[in-house]
Design goal:
single chain, about 200 residues, alpha/beta, five-stranded parallel β-sheet, 5 strands, about 15% strand, globular, binds S-adenosylmethionine
Length: about 200
């Protein structure tokens, strides 16, 4: 969607606030029930291995709200640098931190304060030192050019109105030899403009 169409269809600030409010609820009250799957049952459904989860604090798992499993595309290698775009409560970032080990580094980026608070608390609880959580937008990643070997992202691009901007930021941050391991939702039919204007359809 280009800027002009996006401007005409919806207010970006209003949309971001609605999405933040939805995911704030997933962070602070994960058991209230949402119209999408969350938490450990979701992780099991998506094929996360028990061994990946056993050292991850429950607080990072219970607010997981992804759409797939970025590690199903391959486990990450020791020493790699990883950016987790839209890291939420940090489950994938913490799994990545175990895979890349002490010689690797992980930066989780999210726009929702309550998700980041949870991710930072979980990293501290797990005693993990190779993960850092930064507040920011996927469309303006707070990461330097060519830093990452791999970008992971789980259920976030579908929430960005300007997907090309999100993807070009991923390309900017990746090394030339870098790779994407992302999971998201693809629609196979054109979404009508009337649908794009409905914020409730975006926040899910
Ligand atoms: C569906 S949740 C997935 C969270 C996490 N990846 C997981 O698998 O549990 C989407 C997350 O993306 C964040 N988010 C949505 N749009 C974003 C954007 N444009 N920039 C940064 N974060 C965004 C939300 O705050 C939320 O934490």
């Amino acid at each position: 969607m280009n800027e002009k169409t996006e401007d005409k269809l919806l207010d970006l600030g209003e949309l971001r606030e609605a999405i933040k409010e939805e995911y704030k609820q997933v962070a602070v009250d994960p058991n209230q029930g949402f119209h999408f799957h969350t938490g450990r049952p979701l992780a099991v459904m998506l094929g996360y291995k028990e061994e990946w989860l056993e050292d991850i604090p429950e607080s990072a798992i219970n607010s997981a709200a992804g759409t797939g499993n970025p590690f199903s595309l391959g486990e990450l290698k020791p020493g790699e640098r990883v950016v987790d775009v839209g890291c939420g409560a940090g489950m994938d970032s913490l799994i990545a931190s175990q895979m890349v080990g002490a010689a690797g580094q992980v930066i989780g980026v999210d726009m929702t304060t309550e998700m980041l608070d949870k991710a930072r608390t979980s990293a501290q609880e797990a005693g993990v030192e190779n993960v850092e959580f930064r507040q920011g937008y996927g469309e303006e990643l707070p990461v330097e050019d060519g830093w990452a070997d791999v970008i992971i992202s789980n259920g976030v691009l579908n929430l960005m109105p300007d997907k090309m901007k999100g993807l070009s930021e991923m390309a900017r941050v990746l090394k030339p030899s870098g790779r994407l391991q992302i999971s998201d939702i693809i629609v196979q039919k054109t979404v009508p403009d009337s649908g794009k204007k409905q914020i409730d359809l975006w926040t899910g």
